């Protein structure tokens, strides 16, 4: 495929799909979007850490061939477009990619490039593990109790981008139609947004969440929704989730009702408990009964809020990894944004993207390299060498910049 601005590394080979599996060559080409703002700092550090771990683990037998692809400010400089088609094509062709954060203007301007990428590539599950790293300061008494993985629906809900601005011709049409035909009384000075939640979107997300729990022998999957208020969207998310669990995983799951009706509250061995919580209750439960939760399956907006809140409980966004996964394509990126006030200052914590890259290595089956990075981060934190965000929560720690922190992780690889 001839690209306009993307340079394909000569020595690399693309990852291929064979049947239902990805085949990973020894020198896979991995597209990488550097990202805006702090993306420039953290992506440099991340590439160095990943390259060092792969080299130390596989002694030259395997190597990642990074291929820069463009979105956001860099894409606009090169293509006069924020999200060029060839970027999406390159990610789709190579299946596995790494991404830095991208700016989204608030209240106007263009729509989120992150949301567009997820929708164009049908990366329907945003997967965000949140765990505690020993030694990291936290605002709660028992941060070590947190070990959850959030599966957030990634393509619909209020993020579908169906909105009409107050006073526009379109919003007038929508309000007039609704007031007349649905006998509503919407104020004329309203903006309007639409919140679609489908059986398809819900089931493909919940299926991935339950399969993950089964594959990793995790105790429960909790469906998080605001179904008491939004009955036919969030309530339906819950109902379709249970429906799928009972239809496709019957012999492997027990619902919370069944737990009490059939098993007297004692969980049978080897099964996954499927439960649900109303979103507001979930936010207090994750603080007060943290270790009762494992996999959380959520519609788009709940998952976005919940992942930042969970990350805050274990030391902040600097440690919060993530991935956008479809049937085969995986686009790995941190939970946080571009944190513009820290851009190009060499201060920000790169762990979030480094840990996202660990998820990427695991997705490729290169777990040994991923494990080496996690252990090296643990050692670095134990030695109390940290970036500013962790430093402000840790007594007696030494503060280092982004690049130096990456150097310490590499030095601590065993
Ligand atoms: P943000 O970029 O996530 O930053 C908010 C705060 O979180 C920072 O000021 C910093 O807190 C902390 N933080 C974030 N990343 C950190 C890191 N690696 N290490 C340490 N601390 C970190 O949120 P925002 O300022 O609301 O959003 C900025 C832009 O990013 C917006 O345009 C938004 O749309 C976009 N965004 C993009 C993505 C994405 O690309 N996937 C995701 C979210 C937001 P302190 O100031 O307290 O140190």
Quick summary of this structure?
The chain has 414 residues and is of the alpha/beta class. The chain has helices at residues 39-58, 73-79, 85-94, 113-120, 169-181, 199-215, 231-248, 256-263, 279-288, 300-313, 351-363, 367-382, 388-391, 402-411; strands spanning 16-18, 21-23, 29-33, 65-68, 96-99, 125-131, 147-153, 163-164, 192-193, 220-225, 253-255, 272-278, 295-298, 323-325, 330-333, 385-386, 398-399. The protein contains 14 helices and 17 strands.
Structural commentary:
It contains 14 helices and 17 strands. The chain is an alpha/beta fold and 414 residues long. Helix 1 runs parallel beside helix 14. The chain binds NADP nicotinamide-adenine-dinucleotide phosphate. The site of NADP nicotinamide-adenine-dinucleotide phosphate (NAP) has 17 residues, from loops.
């Amino acid at each position: 495929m001839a690209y306009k601005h993307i340079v394909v590394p000569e020595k690399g080979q693309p990852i291929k799909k064979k049947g239902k599996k990805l085949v990973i060559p020894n020198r896979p080409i991995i597209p990488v979007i550097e990202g805006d703002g702090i993306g420039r700092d953290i992506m440099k550090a991340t590439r160095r850490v990943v390259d060092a771990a792969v080299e130390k683990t596989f002694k030259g037998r395997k190597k990642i061939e990074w291929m820069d692809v463009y979105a956001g400010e860099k894409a606009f400089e090169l293509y006069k477009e924020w999200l060029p088609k060839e970027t999406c094509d390159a990610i789709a062709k190579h299946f596995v990619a790494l991404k830095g954060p991208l700016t989204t203007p608030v209240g106007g301007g263009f729509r989120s490039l992150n949301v567009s990428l997820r929708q164009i590539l049908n990366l329907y599950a945003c997967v965000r593990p949140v765990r505690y790293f020993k030694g990291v300061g936290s605002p709660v008494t028992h941060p070590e109790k947190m070990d959850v993985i959030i599966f957030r629906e990634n393509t619909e809900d209020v993020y579908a981008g169906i909105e009409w601005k107050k006073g526009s011709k379109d919003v007038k049409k929508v309000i007039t139609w609704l007031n007349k035909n649905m006998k509503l009384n919407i104020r004329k000075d309203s903006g309007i947004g639409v919140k679609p939640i489908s059986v398809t979107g819900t089931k493909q997300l919940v299926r991935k969440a339950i399969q993950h729990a089964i594959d990793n022998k995790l105790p429960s999957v909790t469906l998080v929704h605001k179904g008491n208020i939004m009955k036919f969207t969030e309530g339906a998310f819950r109902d379709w989730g249970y429906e799928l669990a009972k239809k496709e995983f019957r012999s492997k799951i027990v619902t919370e009702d069944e737990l009490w009706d059939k098993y007297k509250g004692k969980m049978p061995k080897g099964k996954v408990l499927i439960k649900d919580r109303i979103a507001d209750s979930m936010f207090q439960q994750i603080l007060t009964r943290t270790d009762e939760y494992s996999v959380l399956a959520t519609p788009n907006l709940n998952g976005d809020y919940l992942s930042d809140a969970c990350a805050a409980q274990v030391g902040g966004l600097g440690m919060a990894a993530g991935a956008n996964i479809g049937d085969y394509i995986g686009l790995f990126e941190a939970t946080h944004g571009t944190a513009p006030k820290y851009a190009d200052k060499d201060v920000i914590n790169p762990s979030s993207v480094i840990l996202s890259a660990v998820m990427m290595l695991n997705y490729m089956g290169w777990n040994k390299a991923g494990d080496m990075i996690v252990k090296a981060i643990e050692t670095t934190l134990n030695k109390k060498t940290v970036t500013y965000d962790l430093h402000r929560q840790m007594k007696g720690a030494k503060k280092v910049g982004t690049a130096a922190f990456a150097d310490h992780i590499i030095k601590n690889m065993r």
